Amino acid sequence: GQNIDQPTEMTATEGAIVQINCTYQTSGFNGLFWYQQHAGEAPTFLSYNVLDGLEEKGRFSSFLSRSKGYSYLLLKELQMKDSASYLCASLDSNYQLIWGAGTKLIIKP
Amino acid sequence: GAVVSQHPSWVICKSGTSVKIECRSLDFQATTMFWYRQFPKQSLMLMATSNEGSKATYEQGVEKDKFLINHASLTLSTLTVTSAHPEDSSFYICSARLRDYEQYFGPGTRLTVT
């Protein structure tokens, strides 16, 4: 079957660094997405990885290991506005997104 | 960048009535659009895949006669919730596919059925 696992909730301190992990098992693989979703809003795109390695984009970085079925999202210099849910999604062989349940990130001052 | 709009952004309707939600790709053509539903504190649940000019493909457990999808043009897909009930109250989000690996989300529609 298809499965995406990520932690339900994480807490971090403003200014710190946090890593949100995601493991996936999908029918075929055409890339791994990370989205940010604030409460009551639609998801917004953060990153897309299809090759192994680290992609850095400002304060956010995303890593992928295809052989391990593993990805992480790294957030640096955390700000209060980063409090949100972070959704991991795998693009399967039919180019359909398979979604994780999301990780609620709580930032404390 | 690619923009997707949804209308209305929120709607309140009475039980038993029908509600139509529109999803438009504003600056690109989308042969495929997706409709999601999200309940509070839960992740997105794919309801159906909407293909321009053909019937929508519904996910298991989604009633196609209750959630009518029409993708009449390359920039517009509509979701009609027929005979709505309070349990249909949810956040409905559409997305439009630009390329195989690129989907853009609309802002969502919050439906409340009283």
- Tally of separate helices of chain B: 0
> What is the terminal separation of chain B in angstroms?
37 Å
Overall 3D shape of chain A: globular
First-to-last CA distance of chain A: 40 Å
The H/E string of chain B reads EEEEEEEEEEE
- Discrete helix count of chain A: 0
Mean pLDDT, all residues of chain A? 94
User: Based on CA inertia axes, which overall geometry of chain B fits?
Assistant: globular
Number of strands of chain A: 11
Q: In angstroms, what is the radius of gyration of chain B?
A: 13 Å
Give average pLDDT of chain B, whole number.
93
- Which regions of chain B have little confidence, pLDDT < 50, spanning 5+ residues? none
Biggest sheet statistics of chain A:
6 strands, mixed
Helicity level of chain A: under 10%
What oligomerization state is this entry in?
heterodimer
- Our estimate of the beta-strand percent of chain A is over 45%
Segments of chain A where pLDDT lies below 50 for 5+ residues?
none
Major β-sheet profile of chain B: 7 strands, mixed
**Which two chains share the most extensive interface?**
A-B, 19 and 19 residues
Estimated radius of gyration of chain A = 13 Å
